[in-house]
Structure formats: structure tokens, C-alpha cells
Task: structure prediction
Amino acid sequence: MMLRSGLGDLRRRLLSSLHSRPASLGEPGPVVSFCFDDFPLTAYTGGGAILKRYGARGTYYVAMGLMNTSNHLGDHFRRQDLDSLLTDGHELACHTYSHISCRAVPFRVFEDDFNRGKDAIRKITGCEPANFSYPFGHVTLTAKKRVGAQVSSSRGIYAGVNAPMTDLNLLRANGLYGDVNRFAAMDALIVRNQKQRGWLIFYTHDVRPNPSEFGCTPELLEQVVSSVLARGCRINPVDQVVRRVRMSSTGPSNL
Ligand SMILES: [Zn+2]
Result:
């Protein structure tokens, strides 16, 4: 167990430090992004509705192969939901086509699926996805380097605040899971982000009264959104923040 967690730490450190695309956060902070991965329909009907009520928008990292399917996260999105969420001003981003792990297949297979996912979004919605998140949060050095070069940003699931430098090839993101008893921990992150004038990214999946272990209740999401705004932080989709970071960044690039 110790060895396993030691290897996990080593992998995390290597993946965080190599093939990075550092960019200075500059002006944007403190800002918070809310992301929904895969995505189950309740992420839009529940999560999107809450954001909209507060005048905010989110980022939906969609795996197009999940359209019209159901799994432990509930029913997934249908085609019309993609149009609706774009009309609402949310961002559509890429999450591969088949929701595959880059650790489970050769990179060539992963890259094909990544491209298939982007192509499917373009074909169905006419919109060009600029940002990407890794299914299962699995990253490899090859994927970080090669996929990173093809998108505005890539997001993982390593926790923390993106500040003062952000790695556009592996954005940090924090799971927003469970019910209101998780609010204090989430609020501590919001306060930390406010102090660091950083960029805090939350991600979740289903948003419903009895969520899966990878989702949250509408009550928790609403408390977190409300706290972010009460503390004077902006809420922006990933794409808006990335565009500002790229404009203001003078950081070196190893692309
Ligand atoms: Zn996913």
C-alpha cells in the first residue's frame, strides 16, 4: 500500500513537472470555473440551471460516444441538450469520444479517439472545442505533450489552485462530490483561491438529489456557487479564463 501510494506520488510529480506549458495567471484571478464531465443530463438540467440562475456559465467536457446512453451517472445528454447548453452560453469541450484512458491503450489509439471526439462535436454542433479533459484523470507524459500541443488547455484531476503559474497542459481541478456536508471543505478551497488570486476549477458529473459517488446534490452546488460570488470571485467557463491567461502570459513555453 505504501509502495503503491509512493509510486502514485512519483507519477503525480513527474506528470505535473514535465511537458508543462506554464503561463502566468496575470489578471484573471480570483476566478472559479465549474466543469461537468462526460456528461449526464442532470449536469445540464440540474447543474446548468443553477449556474444560469446566478448569471454564471460552466464548461461541459463531453464524450460524444456517451450520447443517448445511460450508466451509473444516470441518463446522459441527448443531441438537443448540446444545442440548448450552447444557446445558454455554456462551453462545450472535449473529453475523447469513447471515454477511454490514455493509460489503457497505445497513444495512437488514444489520439484517434481524441480526434474523433473533437470531430463529432464539430460535426453535430458546428462548434470547435478548444479545451480538453482527460477521462478518469489519467495522464501519460506522451499524451500530455502530444495532446497538449493540439488544444488550448488540458485538464486533469490533480487537486489544488492554479496559481500563480498555471500549467495549460495539466490544469488542476477539484472534485465537487457529495452533499452539503462537503461544503466547508469546498469553501476552504474558495477562500484559498481568493487569497492567492488564483484560478480554482471544480469538476463533477451528475447533479441530483441522490447523486452517484462522482456527482453532487443541487444543494451543494448551489451553496458553492453562492459562496464563490459572495466572496467576490468571478465564475467563468474554462475557455474564457484560458484566453485571458494566454493573452496576459509572458511565461516560457516548451511547446
Ligand atoms: Zn469522464
